[in-house]
Write a structure and sequence with these properties.
It contains 4 helices and 6 strands. It has about 130 residues and is of the alpha/beta class. The protein has a 6-stranded mixed sheet. α3 links the parallel β3 and β4. It is globular. The protein starts with 8 loop residues before the first helix and ends with a strand.
């Protein structure tokens, strides 16, 4: 049994498969994920599990060199959550919410949270620890 870190078996497996430049999505309840992208569904009900909790757990496990967010997220709560974690998110890339949704197709996998806050979505691009 793992001593620490993410205990969710499928999420831990998906993270272990990541390589440099792979992208993952952490999204809210309503983010449409194309059927071709594997989804680790952590949503129990609205608000559970919240976006910041999932983001923090993932950031403790991976190296991030770049994150992509929608401009629409900046003035709201989602923008504040991402801004507070800027040091661990690498370079910021801004795009439209519509473009972000199109970019999901290229992700290695997506994580669906129980978050019901508008625009609580991010694409993380993996870096390397050296």
């Amino acid at each position: 049994m793992k001593r620490k870190g993410i205990a969710h078996a499928e999420l831990s497996r998906q993270i272990a498969l990541l390589g440099h430049a792979d992208r993952i999505v952490i999204g809210d309840l309503g983010l449409p994920v194309p059927r071709c992208v594997p989804v680790v569904d952590l949503a129990l009900m609205p608000g559970q599990l919240p976006f910041p909790v999932v983001l923090d757990a993932v950031l403790a496990e991976i190296v991030v060199e770049e994150h992509i967010i929608a401009r629409e997220s900046l003035p709201g709560q989602a923008g504040a959550w991402l801004g507070a974690r800027a040091a661990g998110l690498g370079r910021r890339v801004l795009t439209s919410h519509e473009e972000l949704k199109r970019m999901i197709t290229g992700a290695a996998f997506a994580i669906r949270t129980g978050e019901a806050t508008p625009y609580a979505n991010v694409i993380l691009q993996c870096g390397v620890p050296f």
